[in-house]
Design brief:
Helix content is 49%, strand content 15%. The chain is of the alpha+beta class and 356 residues long. An 8-stranded antiparallel β-sheet has the order 2-3-4-5-1-8-10-9, covered by helices on one side. The protein has a two-stranded antiparallel sheet with strand order 6-7. The longest helix has 29 residues. The protein is globular, with a radius of gyration of 21 Å. It starts with a helix and ends with a helix. Pfam families: ATP-gua_Ptrans (PF00217). InterPro entries: Arg_Kinase (IPR023660), ATP-guanido_PTrfase (IPR000749), ATP-guanido_PTrfase_AS (IPR022415), ATP-guanido_PTrfase_cat (IPR022414), Gln_synth/guanido_kin_cat_dom (IPR014746). Its EC number is 2.7.14.1.
């Protein structure tokens, strides 16, 4: 398969679009956790019970074809997927690592452009996830609520009048809402201001994590900021508070970028061009170095220092150079060194497409 075709087929269609504040905010995500009242939580479910949950949710979704007509949802059963296929879904943020690794009898429903995925039998019976490019928290919340309302018409949710939606983990009780934004913050890292900003964000009741959420590091200067509180606040308040903090971080990042451009322009240009040269010429490159160089190149594009390269290159290559995608593109299982060689080759090919 040619790289052009592989990129077209591998990258989620929603990722190819730009959204508000997309020079800094790569994506917005909302996830709603729900459970069916008559079934035990997935962690305590056996095969028969788990399959009953899948059938019950499928029945809700297919009732009058309300969801399938609007979204053309397709179901994938985890037990029918190969480990590499599940890894690719994780790298595309369509399923969680938990669903891929531990939810043996789980499933996922996805729409055509992969902006909606409904995980079944993960930590909770239902996890509705909606994604969009740029800063679009209100829009993805609206889409998630629409999906939630359609399912709830035919499902009996576990709900308490005082506590709200009941979930497997107490931290999700209440609204069951997790909202997050993925942000590219290279200037705050370069100016070392990020070390002050992260504790300040944490004090506001928000969490700052890496690209794949809890327990992951921020590769390529990409940080995920999300709410921690789900109880005692409305969905709208959670979204408003998160968006307000994100806008402040955007302003700080833009100010830091201008500071670098005004005060250290030659040094900055040297750094960005060196990173581009590394990507254009490396024969072996590890994931951390690739992520760092890709971050520099994207910064150079946003500051109009590097020209003739698409803004989508960071979004694409941060996904395509992950282990699962590298092996999918190669058509075989690769050891770490082989992946580093393949990663360098794929990046060179991608940049050649830009030059073409």
């Amino acid at each position: 398969m040619s790289l052009e075709r592989f990129i077209r087929d591998a990258i989620s269609p929603w990722m190819k679009r730009e959204g508000p504040e997309s020079d800094i905010v790569l994506s917005s995500r909302v996830r709603l956790a729900r459970n069916l009242q008559q079934y035990v939580f997935p962690i305590a479910a056996d095969k028969e019970s788990a399959h009953q949950v899948i059938e019950a949710i499928s029945s809700c979704i297919n009732e009058k074809n309300k969801v399938s007509e609007q979204q053309n949802l397709e179901m994938l059963m985890m037990e029918e997927l190969k480990p590499l296929e599940k890894r690719v879904l994780v790298e595309k943020h369509l399923i969680s690592p938990n669903l891929a690794e531990t939810a043996k009898y789980g499933a996922v429903l996805m729409n055509d452009d992969e902006s909606v995925s409904i995980m079944i039998n993960e930590e909770d019976h239902i996890r509705i996830q909606c994604l969009a490019p740029g800063l679009q928290l209100e829009e993805v919340l609206q889409k998630a609520n629409e999906m939630d309302n359609i399912i709830e018409e035919h499902a009996d949710y576990a709900f308490d009048e005082t506590r709200g939606y009941l979930t497997s983990c107490p931290t999700n009780v209440g609204t069951g809402l997790r909202a997050s934004v993925m942000m590219h913050l290279p200037a705050l890292v370069l100016t070392k201001k990020i070390s002050r900003i992260i504790p300040a964000i944490n004090q506001l009741g928000l969490a700052v994590r890496g690209i794949y959420g809890e327990g992951t590091e921020a590769q390529g200067n990409i940080f995920q900021i999300s709410n921690q509180m789900t109880l005692g606040k409305s969905e709208e308040d959670i979204i408003e508070d998160l968006a307000g903090v994100v806008m402040q971080v955007i302003q700080q990042e833009r100010a830091a970028r201008q500071q670098l451009k005004d005060g250290l322009k030659l040094q900055l240009e040297d750094k960005l061009y060196r990173s581009l040269g590394t990507l254009e010429n490396s024969r072996i490159i590890q994931s951390k170095e690739a992520a760092k160089c890709l971050s520099d190149v994207r910064l150079g594009i946003d500051l109009e220092i590097l020209e003739g390269i698409s803004k989508t290159i960071l979004n694409e290559l941060m996904i395509l150079t992950q282990p699962g995608f590298l092996q999918q593109y190669a058509g075989e299982v690769l050891n770490p060194e082989e992946r580093d060689i393949r990663r360098a080759s794929l990046i060179r090919e991608r940049i050649k497409l830009e030059n073409r």
